[in-house]
Design a protein that fits this description.
The complex is a heterodimer.
Chain A lengths: L4 E8 L11 H16 L8 E5 L2 H4 L4 H4 L1 H4 L6 E3 L6 H14 L5 E9 L5 H6 L15 H15 L3 H14 L14 H6 L2 E3 L2 E2 L8 E10 H7 L4 E9 L14 H14 L4 H4 L2 E3 L5 H6 L12 H6 L24 H17 L12 E8 L3 E8 L4
Parallel strand pairs in A: 2-3, 2-4, 9-10
Antiparallel strand pairs in A: 1-7, 1-8, 4-7, 5-6, 8-11, 10-11
Helix pairs in contact in A: 5-15
Chain B lengths: L25 H14 L3 E4 L6 E2 L15 E4 L3 E10 L13 E8 L5 E6 L11 E6 L10 E6 L2
Antiparallel strand pairs in B: 1-2, 1-3, 4-5, 4-7, 5-6, 7-8
Classes of the chains: A alpha/beta, B mainly beta.
């Protein structure tokens, strides 16, 4: 199981569609400086750094080389990882593994992206297999539209179910000073927004943002000294699948089912809907906020619309508040997006989530989604695992 | 070993990707570019803790991770630390026709080197050569607003 590790500090930039005041390196510096301030520590205390982004969004390779000044990585051990949308949780997992291994005491995870510098969808298209299926599955919206239309047909979910999720996340973002899109919207607003790819509409879908996030992990002995209420890592699980798009299961998410099941096992959770206090989920589109509830084991397959969404159990005052921060459809600096989920979940445990704080959080779930169907899962807790 | 490739018919698809990009200079480097463009001056920034002077400027000191708000104007003179002579023609990338010299210039008053053109006969360039920046008359806020470095003697 490795050493016990807690999160002792979190920092993130103010996110926006265009942060023209800051270079990518300056975004990284902003997040790192804020995380160090949050942990009340200096960079000298950091033993190793893991950083990630998606190179083709900025067309500059090797952030671990050219961002050294902003990252604070000069003469420190640095790993760079890149796994698409899951990049943020993968840098988090890698930082956690570093600390849990016993080889490093304090490890900083950094995710960032400056999506304003390229054509995001064109860059995403380069992920797909170039000799078989790049054209039909280029970009992010098509696969999400495909999976939800199949889920609607199979289980009677509706466009309105997705709109309920979109309104929840977007209105939650009003309480988050860091969020990119902060707009008050109704379910009707979402339903009336322009169609992108049936059944996904404009207000269902995430934006692309400029931003960065840094999360500092420390082994038990150090974490206890550094922080009065660390967010302890109870589980960190990664699951990948897919060779070609046709291989995928479209009506549920096998990687998410397997990853969450393993994470709940590690964390001793048998009824996640009841036992978790808050969830910061990488839902790139509101449709995922309907369909994937099944794969989080919050209900049986196909029951999400009736048992979760229409009962409003995931609103801020519901049984399990999801995305108090506004989630991914409010803020999406891609390499940072999943790490923001981990950071927000940690702040919920630490009691530092300010206007979006859920009362008395003891257990929090955070996830990343990447590639086309990869899942990273973190469970954080107020008590030692 | 002779026929290890014989069982595969080699199939290779050609491809080309054209994606437009832009790169935000940011608050630190934009100060540097604006100073160069508007006043024709080369500035550096200095760590308030260890005093190290960086040109091009850094966002944080590499050694101390301090903010770098302490700016100093450089005289424009310096010493060639190393160089290379470019012989091949690449009009899409190179700012001038070969042969020409690229070098690393340690500017007086700075602790780091600046990579730039050295306007010198390729047969006469030497490590340790003293040079001075030639500022372009027409400036657009680009690295070539420093036209090149020229030998002092």
């Amino acid at each position: 199981m490795g050493k016990r590790v807690g999160i002792v500090g979190v920092g993130q930039t103010h996110h926006a569609a265009h942060r023209l005041d800051a270079s990518g390196v300056e975004l990284i510096a902003e997040a790192v400086t804020r995380a160090l301030d949050d942990a009340d520590m200096s960079l000298e205390q950091v033993d190793a750094i893991v950083i990630g982004n998606m190179d083709h969004f900025e067309n500059i390779n090797y952030v671990d080389m050219w961002a050294t000044d902003g990252l604070g990585s000069c003469m420190k051990p640095v790993f760079k990882v890149t796994t698409g949308g899951t990049t943020g949780t993968t840098v988090g997992a890698a930082a956690y593994y570093h600390a849990a291994s016993g080889l490093f005491d304090v490890v900083m995870a950094v995710g960032w992206e400056k999506n304003s510098e390229s054509d995001t969808q064109a860059a995403i298209a380069t992920c797909a297999n170039p000799v078989l299926e790049r054209d039909p599955f280029a970009g992010a919206i098509g696969p999400l539209a495909t999976e939800y239309s199949m889920y609607m047909k199979a289980y009677g979910a509706t466009e309105e179910d997705a709109a309920i999720v979109a309104a929840r996340d977007r209105n939650n973002a009003l309480n988050n000073i860091y969020a990119h899109n902060r707009m008050k919207v109704t379910v009707e607003d979402v339903l009336n927004s322009p169609m992108l790819s049936y059944p996904v509409k404009f207000l269902d879908m995430c934006p692309r943002s400029d931003g960065a996030c840094a999360v500092i992990f420390a082994v038990e002995e150090k974490a206890k000294k550094m922080c009065d209420r660390p967010a302890w890592v109870h589980a960190s699980v990664v699951r990948h699948d897919y060779t070609h798009f046709g291989d995928l299961e479209w009506q549920w998410m096998p990687t998410l089912e397997r990853a969450t099941l393993q994470a709940y096992k590690y964390a001793g959770i048998s009824n996640p809907l009841r036992e978790l206090d808050v969830a910061e989920l990488y839902l790139p589109c509101s449709t995922c906020g309907v369909k994937w509830m099944d794969s989080f084991w919050f209900c049986d397959r196909g029951e999400s619309p009736k048992k979760i969404i229409r009962k409003r159990v995931t609103e801020m005052d519901g049984e399990l508040p999801i995305n108090p921060s506004g989630g991914v459809i409010a803020t999406n600096p891609i390499g940072a997006t999943a790490l923001i989920r981990v950071g927000e979940a940690a702040w919920q445990i630490m009691g530092r989530a300010e206007g979006r704080q859920v009362p008395k959080v003891k257990k929090a779930l955070a996830t990343g989604f990447g590639g086309c169907s990869w899942s990273d899962v973190f469970i954080l807790g107020a008590d030692l695992p | 070993m002779a026929d290890w490739k014989s069982e595969v018919e080699e199939v290779v698809f050609p491809g080309k990707i054209c994606v437009p990009y832009s790169w935000t200079v940011g608050s630190t480097l934009s100060k540097w570019y604006v100073q160069l463009r508007d006043d024709g001056e080369i500035w550096a920034n200095r760590c308030p803790s260890c005093g190290k002077v960086y040109v091009p400027p850094k966002i944080k000191c590499l050694d101390c991770y301090k903010d770098m708000n302490d700016w100093v104007k450089l005289p424009g003179t310096g010493t060639v630390e190393t160089f290379t002579v470019v012989h091949y023609h690449e009009p899409g990338l190179h700012p001038k026709k070969p042969p020409f010299v690229y070098g690393v210039v340690k500017m007086d008053g700075a602790d780091t080197g600046l990579v730039h053109l050295i306007d010198v006969d390729p047969d006469k360039v030497k490590v340790g050569m003293r040079v001075k920046a030639k500022i372009a008359k027409e400036r657009t806020g680009h690295i070539t607003d420093i036209k090149h470095f020229k030998p002092l003697s």
